[in-house]
Amino acid sequence: MDTRLLLGAAPALLTAAGPGGGSLRANLALNVGDDPALVHGRRAGLSRRLGRAVVWMAQTHSTRVDVVSGSDAGRWEGPEWGPLECDGVVVDARDWPGAPAVAVVVADCLPVLLATADGMTVAAVHAGRRGLAGGILTEAVARLRSLRGESAEVHAVIGPAICGRCYEVPDSLRAEVARTHPAAWATTSWGTASLDLPAAAREELAGLGVDVRAVRAVGACTRETPVLHSYRRDPACGRQAGVIAPAR
Ligand SMILES: [Zn+2]
């Protein structure tokens, strides 16, 4: 059910809620009313699958992007690192064998994973409507390139998120977001104003010279896909994760 892929040379994983009816099944977030012991257990399981620790975020719809590098080794113990209070984390694994993976949790917002071609510098970004409109994707790409050079080849994948046919918003909000992200302008399948955030993200990343061929929308709309968590479909839902690990 989970989707595995390679981004540059970096292995990535997009989890799913899976079949069943429980709102919190396979939930990976600590702030949605789930039993913390269950969440920590699932996170530890994810670390075992990846064979390394995972950095988690306390996401706040900000545009803050942090960098974790070899100087942070030993800052945490065990499989679960963080949480870092930000909405994007870059892991610079150069000269850091066994560097951790990094995860973003979502249910309708966009999980965006980034990697340099060599897979040695990776990032996970939480791009909801506010973060995306505020420029968090541009910020994350800038942080990657500040580490690896302005000409660094960057690959991105946009994981499953709510689509433009489903993400209804007031007319005024659609107009506001479309001023900076024209591709976000959309209409729901029932004819009202909406936002197409995956399209807006693709447009922004392409404009930054992120390899467009490598920007792959995997999976379908969260709201229309019962095996994925969707806040718009079920406000009591859990969160799935997008996780990316460095290539070493
Ligand atoms: Zn949809």
TrEMBL record:
High-level lineage: Bacteria, Bacillati, Actinomycetota, Actinomycetes, Actinomycetales
Family note: Belongs to the purine nucleoside phosphorylase YfiH/LACC1 family.
Pfam families in UniProt: Cu-oxidase_4
Keyword Nucleotidyltransferase carried by entry: no
Superkingdom: Bacteria
Keyword presence, Ribosomal protein: no
Keywords, alphabetical: Copper, Hydrolase, Metal-binding, Transferase, Zinc
Job of this protein: Purine nucleoside enzyme that catalyzes the phosphorolysis of adenosine and inosine nucleosides, yielding D-ribose 1-phosphate and the respective free bases, adenine and hypoxanthine. Also catalyzes the phosphorolysis of S-methyl-5'-thioadenosine into adenine and S-methyl-5-thio-alpha-D-ribose 1-phosphate. Also has adenosine deaminase activity.
Annotated catalysed reactions: adenosine + H2O + H(+) = inosine + NH4(+); inosine + phosphate = alpha-D-ribose 1-phosphate + hypoxanthine; adenosine + phosphate = alpha-D-ribose 1-phosphate + adenine; S-methyl-5'-thioadenosine + phosphate = 5-(methylsulfanyl)-alpha-D-ribose 1-phosphate + adenine
UniProt cross-references to InterPro entries, sorted A to Z: Cu_polyphenol_OxRdtase (IPR003730), Cu_polyphenol_OxRdtase_sf (IPR038371), Cytotoxic_necrot_fac-like_cat (IPR011324)
Designated name of the protein: Polyphenol oxidase family protein
Ranges in coiled-coil conformation: none
Signal peptide stretch: none
